[in-house]
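S2.1 Query sequence (Serpentine Receptor, class H)
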Amino acid sequence: MVLASPVFYANSLHVLTVITTPLQILGSYCIIFKTPKSMGTIKWSLLNLHFWCMVLDWALTMFIIPLLILPVLGGCPLGILTTWFGVSTHIQAYIIITLIFMSTVPITKILVAGTSVVVVFENRYYQLYAVDMFWLLFPLSSMAFLIIMECVVFVVLINRNLKAGSKLATLSEATIKIQKKFLRALYAQASVSCFYFSIPTSYTLFSQFSGIYSQEVIHFVLIIASTHGFSSTLVMIWAHKPYREFCFKIIVWIQTILKITPSKVKQEIPNLQISSIIFA
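Output structure tokens follow.
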């Protein structure tokens, strides 16, 4: 079928790159130039998260394009790192896994230097023995669990301290309302990441333990997961008022340029009537 074709899969992701990149660039512009002073403390953290989400999308849709073959957890890259530069599949697999975690929590950058040592021994193990799925799934699941627990801990601490500040009157009601509104925006953006990453993970686990496999479905799942950055950018722009208002101004400006004013149409109608009388 067409959906199972690697060519269709790669071309679909290339088209997705063309569609999503302008919006992601707009999101970067909003963070850099339209972030108000009241959000100054979170500005660079937002930009860092947005940047790695954007890089991950480019890796999935252009540079690497991982083609998975389940349930053996096999596959190959189809992106320009392979077709143009001949980069090793092992290196590309490491890059894509690292980007997934870096686009989730920025603290992962600290862990990359340490885990790079482990990768050397991991590579030797996989070169010498048949692949044991447990030792592949276990570290990935552990890292995902660690990141989720870190997020949960910080969310609990933030909410607890906000409630304590409200009771002790150390924070004004206006400040608390602003912080809660901003946190809701962050929760929405984080939920998008969790949702999109859970789709390929759930299907991979399902295929692994059930033995049921469909190349069409895995292509569809990966294409959906590759829209993660696009959806995350949309949520970010909509959730944060300064970015939303700036984008509304752009939409109004575009409508003003493309709109045909009614006055021009009214002026053309009498001219047509006069010309028809003369030629009659």
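The radius of gyration is 25 Å. The chain has one domain: 2-258.
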